[in-house]
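Contributing new complexes? Match this layout with asparagine.
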Amino acid sequence: WQAVQNATGHTVYSGTVDLTSTQSGSTYNLTDGARGGHKTYNLNRGTSGTGTLFSGSDDVWGNGSPSNLESAAADAHYGAALTWDYYKNVHGRNGIRGNGVGAYSRVHYGNNYVNAFWSDSCFCMTYGDGSGNANPLTSIDVAAHEMTHGLTSNTAGLVYSGESGGLNEATSDIFGATVEFYANNSSDVGDYLIGEEININGNGTPLRYMDKPSKDGASKDAWYSGIGSIDVHYSSGPANHFFYLLSEGSGTKSINGVSYDSPTSDGLPVTGIGRAKAEKIWFRALTTKFTSTTNYAAARTGTLAATGELYGTDSAEYKAVQDAWAGINVGA
Ligand code: ASN
Ligand code: ZN
Ligand code: CA
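Output block (do not edit by hand):
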């Protein structure tokens, strides 16, 4: 017999959290029976297959330290659950494919692997342990980023190169950020930074900044002809910036103790409409307007169409979407 259990996780990044596990006889395992059976596996430095399902005789996972192999598993299991709940409760979507079926996570991939990724072929997420200063790649924003690649594949299908590739990456950063805000976890508050907890650069800086993407030294703040030929993790910059401007507006602002300073390429101000509306617009555009070949110009058209349906074409929201695109040099 199997029973859905309320488990406890001592994560690397998010403190002590509630998890959902499954009890099978006298053994507990990291199968989330409340979210499509999402499982978390231990690759134990392997790079293929699923390794072993995390299981044990108690229902407490990890101790908060990365040296305990269950700790990163607790983060990954938690991040997947939050992302599932976010899409269900905020957007009414039941799992990545909308059919209530869970994916799975694999942690401890390879040796000193400093990345995480989604794979369409396994329908799974994989996390490295990092190396040197870098911690396991299992923070909430990274988990939500990877899981969102699955959503994008199963909806718009944005091709992972050129401008559509930048929009694919931005979609993962956008929902990576919104899931982190949704978590509302006191040890891991929301922000418009990606991967700030991993310490990949060794100096505490994040991987990416949505208010002013060029702060990372490589991402672009605004669209230009030819942006489609740079790495998709940099051509995502203007769309991340669009989302920040639409949510929070241009200029300086402090949120949860983090300072932001968001310029516009046309020098004109943008008045934000709040993250709650901006995320509705992006999700609706992604799932009903964008296609595999959507570029920046088409993303503008698609988000405006979505905004018109949600709030009307005479609305302040519609004007803000126009202004935010103009603020990253995407015009009519
Ligand atoms: N972490 C990266 C990403 O999700 C992995 C990759 O570049 N494929 O974009
Ligand atoms: Zn990505
Ligand atoms: Ca973050």
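Reviewers usually confirm one structural detail per submission. For this one: The CA atoms of residues 281 and 307 lie 6 Å apart.
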